[in-house]
């Protein structure tokens, strides 16, 4: 099914308001509008990426392009940023200037779930089937979407390095919870001061921070410059603080109800969802498609292993796609 072609693929970029918050959308393929039910040219399937945190669409640029190629350019592949995690272009505010407030606390964890459901409702025809590919906290969001909107035509949900339980108790969670829940405001002033640096200096700082990686994705470097924005960092850290408090018990009921649609992929050295979380869910759902990484991929795979991950997912879904 995979194509070996490395030719550039059609990539459309949009900044929109969704639930009143700035949202960055990247779309692979010629389909820019999937909302018109009457169109005869609508694809049967949309691959939609639900990001981790930071939920910046740009981190997934290489991933969606590789996935689109691997699918022989037959289906659209979109990634939707989390509300308020992107730096809006000049002339666009982080929050829409309107008297109508669509959603309380859109930047919180619950708000991000409703943000994705709202995006689908307004931008994707209800007749189009979905493959949801979620990463990290995006996996929690995806399970919540399936729970709250059972009418969604979800063919498959692929949950990569899923932070769906006991986040504050994980090795990384124990380290980060005090910082995120008590000290995050102390980070705003350094970020504010760094925001005045020239773009080239910011890029150099990002390269220095990622210097330990053998082959860091170039799009990750340009995307990381968003992290020098106080507004973006405030929304990112606020959401993360809620993750520590709210992602506690695994939603085994929703998993059981949708088990045949789910693929889980856990890491072996993942400090956000350690291997014992894999062992336990595997024991609780022996018939589930629950996999353990054998390639040593990091939790933040988008930094250096986007193409490898896209190739694996393409292989996993071949049987589903041939039945369409």
TrEMBL record:
GO CC annotations, alphabetized: endoplasmic reticulum; lipid droplet
Entry-linked InterPro entries: AB_hydrolase_fold (IPR029058), LDAH (IPR019363)
Compartments, as annotated in UniProt: Endoplasmic reticulum; Lipid droplet
Enzyme's top EC category: hydrolase
Enzyme Commission no: 3.1.1.13
Keyword entries, A-Z: Endoplasmic reticulum, Hydrolase, Lipid droplet
A GO molecular function held by the record: sterol ester esterase activity
Domain of life of the native organism: Eukaryota
Record keyword Hydrolase present: yes
One GO term of the biological process aspect: cholesterol homeostasis
Family under the similarity heading: Belongs to the AB hydrolase superfamily. LDAH family.
The name this protein goes by in its record: Lipid droplet-associated hydrolase
Organism: Malurus cyaneus samueli
Organism ancestry: Eukaryota, Metazoa, Chordata, Craniata, Vertebrata
């Amino acid at each position: 099914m995979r194509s070996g072609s490395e030719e550039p693929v059609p990539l459309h970029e949009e900044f929109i308001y969704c639930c009143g918050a700035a949202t960055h959308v990247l779309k692979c393929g010629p389909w820019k509008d999937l909302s018109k039910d009457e169109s005869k040219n609508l694809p049967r399937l949309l691959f939609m990426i639900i990001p981790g945190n930071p939920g910046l669409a740009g981190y997934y640029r290489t991933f969606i392009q590789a996935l689109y190629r691997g699918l022989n350019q037959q289906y659209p592949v979109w990634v939707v940023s989390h509300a308020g995690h992107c730096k809006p272009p000049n002339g666009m505010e982080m929050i829409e200037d309107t008297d109508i407030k669509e959603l309380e606390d859109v930047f919180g964890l619950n708000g991000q779930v409703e943000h994705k459901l709202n995006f689908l409702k307004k931008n994707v025809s209800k007749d189009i089937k979905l493959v949801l590919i979620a990463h990290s906290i995006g996996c929690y969001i995806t399970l919540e979407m399936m729970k709250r909107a059972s009418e969604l035509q979800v063919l498959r949900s692929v949950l990569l390095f899923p932070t769906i339980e006991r986040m504050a108790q994980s090795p990384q969670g124990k380290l980060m919870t005090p910082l995120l829940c008590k000290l995050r405001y102390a980070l705003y002033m350094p970020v504010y001061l760094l925001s005045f640096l020239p773009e080239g200096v910011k890029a150099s700082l990002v390269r220095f921070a990622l210097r330990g990686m053998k082959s860091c994705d170039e799009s990750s470097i340009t995307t990381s410059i968003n992290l020098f924005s106080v507004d973006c960092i405030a929304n990112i850290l606020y959401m993360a603080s809620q993750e520590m408090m709210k992602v506690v018990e695994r939603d085994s009921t929703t998993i059981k109800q949708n088990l045949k649609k789910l693929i889980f992929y856990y890491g072996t050295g993942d400090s956000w969802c350690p291997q014992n979380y894999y062992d336990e869910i595997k024991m609780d759902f022996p018939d589930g498609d629950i996999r353990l990484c054998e390639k040593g991929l990091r939790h933040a795979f988008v930094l250096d292993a986007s193409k490898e991950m896209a190739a694996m997912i393409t292989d996993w879904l071949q049987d589903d796609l041939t039945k369409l």
